[in-house]
Each structure stands twice: as C-alpha cells, then as structure tokens.
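Class prep. Write one:
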Amino acid sequence: MAVPEQDTQVSTLRKIITSELEPLARRFRALFSLKYLASLQPPSEQTVPAIEAIAAAFSSPSALLKHELAYCLGQTRNDAAILPLRNVLEDEEEDAMCRHEAAEALGALGDMGSLELLKRLRDNKGEVEVVRETCEIAVDRIEWEHSKQRKDEQLKQSDFASIDPAPPLPQAKQTPSIPELEKALLDTSLPLFQRYRAMFALRDLSSPPDLPTAVPAVQSLARGFSDPSALFRHEIAFVFGQLSHPASIPSLIETLSNTKEASMVRHEAAEALGSLGDEEGVEDTLRKFLDDPEQVVRDSVIVALDMAEFEKNGEAEYAIVPGTSEPIAV
C-alpha cells in the first residue's frame, strides 16, 4: 500500500527540523512548510502531525529555532499546540526568549485554560522580566478575545494574516493621527497591551509601503527602540520585519550594531533586515555579524542571509525546502 504523499512530506520535514546535522536555514524553511500544514483551516489530517513535528524540535539546543517553533505553534489556531507551549513556558531551565514566545503563543491561541499559569507567572516578581511582561500581555489578549468589548469593536482589516500579541486599536469615527498613536506607543504609564495596540495600528498605517502615512508611521515606530522594555523593542523589530519597509533600515542597522542591546532585540533586527534583503547594502551589513559574540545573533544572521537570498531570487515562498522535489506553497 502506497504511503500518501502528504504523510511522506510531513515525515520528511520532521526529520529535517529535528536534525542537528541540518543547516539552520534549511530547518527554518522546513519549519515554515510545517507551519503551513499546521495552520490549515479547516484542519486536515496533516494538521496534528505537523504540529507534533514542530513541537518535537523543542529538544534542539538552538534558542533561535525554539523561539520560532513557539511562534509558529501560536499561529496555528489549533488546541493541539497548547500543551507543548505550556511545557516550554513552565520550564524555568529553558531560555527566556523561548519561554516568552511560548507565553505569547498561548495568548495568540486565546486559550482560557492557560490563564491561571499566565497570571501566576505575570505576578511572580522573581520571574524573568521578559517572561513576566509577555504573560501580562497574553492575559490581556485572552481576556479581550473573550470579552464583550471584543464583540463590540470594529477592527480595520489588516494586510497581515498573523495573529498578533494585541489587535490594532478599534476603528473610530475619527481615526487617531500618527502623533496620537505615537504618544500612546511611547507612554510607559499605559498597560503594555494598550501600547501594543497602538503599535499594530501604526503598522497597519505603514502598509502598503506607498501609503502617504507609511513613512511617518515607520518613523514613529522606530522611536519605540528607545523604550526601556527589551520585549517592547523586540516587538518593534518584529513589526519592521513584517513591513519590510526601506525606511526602517537605518534604525534596524543601529539596533543590530548596538552590542549593548539585548540579544533578543538584536536577533529580531537581524531577521527584519533579512526581509529587506533586496535593498542595497543589507546583505553586506548582515555579513558583518556572522561572527557576533552572541549565538542567537549569529544564528539569526545566517537565517536572515538565507531570507535575503530568497528575496533577491524572487522565490514564491520562504517555506520552500531546498533540495526537495515538490515545494510546499503557502
């Protein structure tokens, strides 16, 4: 009896993503192929095996890979992703960057059953700050997701399909101006969830890149790199990676070049630059950090250069796994 092609595909991708002998960039491409299968709506018979394949790679020593695994699981809209994410979040021996991403992913899944865990870590003063802050946002997101407020809000259709840590601010009769959104973005007296809502509202004003509001909104977002929270600065870099707007390049290079910056922020800046790989000088800049003292930064640069190559070659999807005969379209 012939093995179904999809079964073979998931099995092959699982072998790639869990093998420490595979190049990191190839494992990332396998991950995004699995993410596509894991996120199918409605779910297919490949959905749970793909989720299990992603979760199996949490045994890797690579903090960068595990961080990305958690992110992808949070985008699946599938409860099968909850348990492995909780396990990562509860593991105090795990890298804080991975635990933060697991908390954020549980928030993205809107899992009410994780509220007790998230609140406990949020309220634990001895917890790592980035984990505590992420749990705060995740709690607010889950409670918002299941609230009457959510049902009453009108949200602008976004160009981005991602499930974000916070939704953009709701539509109002009078759209907030960019200076008003920037004020909320930078106001450290506001809850992080509210500031993130301003962040994603500014993101949506930056896309498509030829919008009259795009460059001013990107410039407002870039001012977020001065925030005292490493988590917040990391999210600014992530948003810039989504936007791939050339106006973000100077602030991303400055962030990556700052060796005093938190590694989780620098790594995100490197990956964001990878999404801008077809812009002049970006690849040369990234190559300067291939020998960076921080492992997660070095690894991010490797992945970013692979992304840059993908951008330059005009490939259809980054999820294509090099060397396989049939690429997965996402």
In short: The two ends are 29 Å apart (CA to CA). The chain has two domains: 1-152, 156-315.
